[in-house]
Amino acid sequence: QVQLVESGGGLVQPGGSLRLSCAASGRDLDKYTVGWFRGKRGQGVSCIDVTDGLIDYVGSAKGRFTISVDDAKNTVYLQMNNLAPDDTGAYFCGAAWLTDVRAMCGRRTAIYTWGQGTQVTVSS
């Protein structure tokens, strides 16, 4: 069973940037799809299939956010640029085994593995 720990949240002014990290332990992320969500019940922000690199971005994340994976560190990152107040929220990473990225980001599949979340606040 994989365990996830998020970090990197904080307070940033509109237009600023943050990089969130989702560090996995317990097993490698190979064959997992990992996604970032604003709220555990919310739609995905961005998801990545760690094995083949397929990526999905949802809504306003397109063009502003970049998801990536560092296999050596077993960590998934979310680079968030040009942040806006609407981006404020608790961001969680979730992982699911052999799951389509769009199904995961669209919440059409169950996600049982979550981190504890990291708060992002965008405010002047």
Main attributes of the structure:
4% helix, globular, 124 residues, single chain, mainly beta, four-stranded antiparallel sheet
Describe the structure.
- It is a single chain.
- The chain is mainly beta.
- It has one helix spanning 101-105, and strands at 3-7, 10-12, 18-25, 32-38, 44-49, 55-57, 65-70, 75-80, 89-97, 113-114, 118-122.
- Strands 2, 4, 5, 6, 9, 10 and 11 form a 7-stranded mixed beta sheet that branches. The chain has a 4-stranded antiparallel beta sheet with strand order 1-3-8-7, with no helix packed on it.
- Strand 4 and strand 5 form a beta hairpin.
- The longest helix has 5 residues, at 101-105.
- The model has no long low-confidence stretch (mean pLDDT 96).
Q: What is the structure about, briefly put?
A:
This protein is mostly beta strands and 124 residues long. The protein has one helix at residues 101-105; strands spanning 3-7, 10-12, 18-25, 32-38, 44-49, 55-57, 65-70, 75-80, 89-97, 113-114, 118-122. The chain is 4% helix and 48% strand.
Task: Look at the helices and sheets and give the structural class.
Answer: mainly beta
Beta-strand portion reads over 45%
Give the H and E element order: EEEEEEEEEHEE
Which outline best applies?
A: globular
Q: For the CA atoms, what is the radius of gyration? A: 13 Å
Q: Could you outline the blueprint of secondary structure elements for this entry?
A:
Blueprint: E1 3-7, E2 10-12, E3 18-25, E4 32-38, E5 44-49, E6 55-57, E7 65-70, E8 75-80, E9 89-97, H1 101-105, E10 113-114, E11 118-122
Parallel strand pairs: 2-11
Antiparallel strand pairs: 1-3, 3-8, 4-5, 4-9, 5-6, 7-8, 9-10, 9-11
